[in-house]
Amino acid sequence: MNFLSKIFRRLFNTLTPYPTENLEFWQERTFNILMTSSLGVALIAYIPSIIACVRLKILNVLILDTAALLLISFFTLFFKIPFKIRVIGVLSTIYLLSVFLIIFIGPFGVGLLWMLAFSVFAGIFLPLRPALISVITNALTLIVMGLMLVFHLFDKNAMINFYSPDSWWANTANFVALNLLLTVSIGLLLNQLRFFIKKEIIIRNQLNEEKEKLFIAKQKSEKADYLKSAFLANMSHEIRTPLNGIIGFTELLKQDDIDEQSRHEYYKLIDISGKQLQVLIEDIIDFSRIETGQLKLFYKPLFLNEQLRQTKQTFDPIIHENNKTNLQIIIRVGLTDEESRFTCDPVRFIQVINNLVGNAIKFTQNGYIEIVYRKIENEEQKPELLFCVKDTGIGISEENQKIIFGRFLQIEETHNRKYGGTGLGLAISKSLIELMNGKMWVESTVGKGSAFYFTLPYLQVEI
Q1: Contact call for residues 125 and 116 (beta carbons, < 8 A)
Q2: Cross-strand pairs, 444
Q3: Helix (H, G, I), strand (E, B), or coil: what is residue 68?
Q4: Most buried one in 144, 282, 327, 333, CB count within 10 A?
């Protein structure tokens, strides 16, 4: 019962249309529908055929009909068999059935109709060339039968002998002409249909791809708008902070009753706020130039070791001012002072180093910040300098490592409020390094610290 229920369920699904993008599916679907219908008609015709064969005592035809019906049922209803094997099995069965019916029943049977069905089905389920081969097979079969009929090679009890040679050749000519016309017409029609279905599938797939691209582009656009809005909100806060400091302490300086120490402290705070505002504006300008492709590089010789020592001297007082007494900067060089002279854009190189060291100080309370470099060779066997700015700070999660170099992207808004900054520094630094034909990446563990790496071509200057 389970087997029969599966068969009927599959047949029901076969007759129930639903969309698909698979052309082979439609070919198999047509085969299932046509063969299921043909099987139903064959079952109806099978009953009177059995009765006639029993009455006339033609047992060989009875056995033949039963075997053909079972084979066609098998190839029609067993859907797990590969489609091509099912088609070949059904066509072979129909062909053999037609041959035996012509021989044993002659003009009293439907052998020629089954032979015609063999070529028609071949034209429907196979390409045009195999369909034409089926027509040629039918023609050769009928010619061989005609020759056997002429030379009386058939058994005397075979009903094919009821044909006269003249009527046989006339019927053969008419049959082959009709067979060829039907098969070629159906084959050409279905070839065009296959072509248009394939074209429709290609267009539909292209439309789906374009729809998916538009959806992704829309999402990116919406995300970019949101990030730009958040970025502008953060920028307004960052601009107001030093600006308020400048305006506020300038107002205090207008008072006549302030002492000299307070006046000096106000000047100092105004200077700090002014420099913060200057750095912020410079970052915005650089970012804008990078985005529009207007940033130009100016290559000059740079004494690398000397510059790194100056960087340490610059940031040591800042560490002291931030009361981070347990934090120190370590410099490790990989070349001698003479070898460390190489060509780059010194202003942009210093900007990148200062940004990385400044971030490290910002997010590191205790431990060390190490600035190290060494000479390496890239994949093209060209010399490069590999730099690393490593700290023992709060670290960056693996998820956030993917976004810290992005435009308008910041790890958390709370970080900006707690530590300050616009979030542009790393995006600018990575873009500058790439403009100088280098690469930048990060390795970090939350709670243990971060290591920012970047490479630059080692364009040595002869001294």
Answers
A1: no
A2: 450
A3: helix
A4: 327
Q: Are strands 449-457 and 367-377 parallel, antiparallel or unpaired?
A: unpaired
The neighbouring-strand residues paired with 137 are none
Query: pTM for the complete prediction?
Result: 0.52
Q: 367 and 391 in contact (C-beta within 8 Å)?
A: yes
Environment class of 1 (CB within 10 Å of its CB; exposed 0-12, middle 13-18, buried 19+): exposed
Write the DSSP assignment of 353-408 as a string of letters: HHHHHHHHHHT--SEEEEEEEEEEE-TTS-EEEEEEEEE-SS---HHHHTTTTSTT
Q: Is 327 helix (H, G, I), strand (E, B) or coil?
A: strand
The answer to whether 24 touches 83, Cβ cutoff 8 Å, is: yes
- DSSP strands (E only) in 15-120: none
How many Å separate Cα 374 from the centre of its chain?
Answer: 39
Q: By the 8 A CB rule, do 111 and 102 touch?
A: yes
Whether the CB-CB separation of 445 and 395 falls below 8 Å is answered with yes
DSSP string, 122-147: HHHHS-HHHHHHHHHHHHHHHHHHHH
Q: How far is CA 147 from the centre of its chain?
A: 62
Q: Are strands 449-457 and 440-445 parallel, antiparallel or unpaired?
A: antiparallel
Torsion-angle region of 152 (φ positive above 0: left; ψ -120 to 50: alpha; else: beta):
left
Query: Long-range pairs for 166-172 at CB < 8 Å and ≥24 separation?
Result: 171/112, 172/139, 172/142, 172/143, 172/146
- Taking Cα atoms as reference points, which of 140, 101, 104, 100 lies closest to residue 119? 140
d(CA 275, CA 321): 16
H/E stretch holding 453 reads strand 449-457
Domains contained in the chain, CATH given:
2-201 (no CATH), 296-457 (3.30.565.10)
